[in-house]
Amino acid sequence: MAHFPDNPGFTGLMRMVRLEADIHDLEVEGEIPVALDGAFYRVHPDPQFPPKYADDQFFNGDGMVSQFRFKDGKVDWRQRYAQTDKWKLERAAGKALFGAYRNPLTDDPSVAGRIRGTANTNVLVHAGKLLAMKEDSPCLIMDAETLATDGYTDFGGDLPISAFTAHPKIDTETGHFCGFGYALDGPLTKACEYFEIDAGGKVVRRVPFEVPHYTMLHDFGITADYAVFNVSPYMSSWEQLEKVEPHFKYDPALPFYLGVLRRDGTAPIRWFKAEPSFCGCHVMNAFQDGTKVHFDLPVSKNNSLFFFPDVHGHPFDREAGKTYLTRLTVDMAANSDDLTEMQQIGAMPGEFPRIDDRMAGKPYRHGWMCTYAFDKPYEGPPGPFVGVINSLTHFDLATGKETVWWAGPQCGIQEPAFIPRAPDAPEGDGYLVALVDNHITNYSELCIFEALKLDAGPIARAKLPVRLRQGLHGNWADASRFHVAEEAE
């Protein structure tokens, strides 16, 4: 009999779903564009069994993958667990065997040395397969259409690394999947590797490097020549793990680093340092301008992730934790490695930044982000983070104009994704999709917007009879990408 902890991590807005299901032809309000033929995939942590530790991290739940399949103006919904090694072992045992978030010291002895990954952070179709990813474990392969799990892969022995990025970038000029792994010499180590996988699924580049200290190397950006890594001042230690404390803690005494690595591996990584420090986790985009590298991400003055406490025990500062879209700039021709050029380029605070993914690594104009409209009323239970993510904002970086859509007093919004109207459509010409969760009725709707007309509201809403748990990341895949690997053979 399952008894989940009676605390905010497992109740209210964070209550589990644990539902594998199919719904053919979702109820739709409005009109789905008939030309859309593909799928929006997203994933959320959803533990199949009560955790071994009642105060365990939300991020330690098993990956539950959702697929919204668009075709002929209709939307079908499918949801399945990512059947990781952990999921299979625990399903066989009928209980949780793996312990606290990223802490192998807390595991049942029967699973010592087994892959702890949950595949719960991001999903993306590449080379005809759905990749389910979490940054502390290898890549899990799933079927892009059925969501059946194939299992972990090392890409034919060409990428035998223990950890695989959860924030890949696709270089549309080459078709390459660009990613990285960290802590590759074991837990808490500094060894990292940048890699690229071509459109057929073949590993074509591997470049080793080290971070200044072990940290949460969560996201990154690419430019035409560089891979760019943001290191916020999060740290860990074996002492923390032995005490079963949170894996990461925020240490404001550590610098913020920006690492710039040539993608071809012809030069060592160069680390630019900013002191006093700040926090920036998710990346909107990066691009080059001559010898300068620009790097755009939401930035806060202090820790923005309340679930990773301050190393000195200081309480979470909600005001200092608000993140604003900011541009960091470094000059590869400069003699100094100090990171001093910062410019706030967004007025609305928020998180989960997205772009028209065809612009990854290029100068760009349009970006979107989940945002906090603190001036709007809210009728639901308290939300996570620094407030309720209750709005979507379009940032026009050419004009500085920000266009906002507010979801209403009962709702929160999950990370959006962009869908181009056509493969050759101009930047930003297309649709934005995002789950909108009603915290009172406990239903979720997948909302579809004209991407450059957010303030007009959704042009369609595909309605679910349940409310999905807060997700992390997801992506759109055109149906033409479902069988790329087979065609390449």
Relevant terms:
489 residues, mainly beta, 7-stranded antiparallel sheet, 6-stranded antiparallel sheet, 32 strands, disordered C terminus
Topology (elements, then pairings):
Layout: E1 21-23, E2 27-30, E3 38-45, E4 63-71, E5 74-81, H1 85-93, E6 122-126, E7 129-133, E8 139-142, E9 149-153, E10 169-171, E11 176-182, E12 191-197, E13 203-210, E14 220-222, E15 226-231, E16 234-235, H2 238-242, E17 249-250, E18 256-262, E19 270-274, E20 285-289, E21 292-299, E22 324-331, E23 341-355, E24 366-371, E25 391-396, E26 402-406, E27 411-413, E28 417-420, E29 430-438, E30 443-450, E31 460-463, E32 474-478, H3 484-488
Antiparallel strand pairs: 1-5, 2-31, 3-4, 3-32, 4-5, 6-7, 7-8, 8-9, 10-11, 11-12, 12-13, 14-15, 15-18, 16-17, 18-19, 20-21, 21-22, 22-23, 23-24, 24-25, 25-26, 27-29, 28-29, 29-30, 30-31
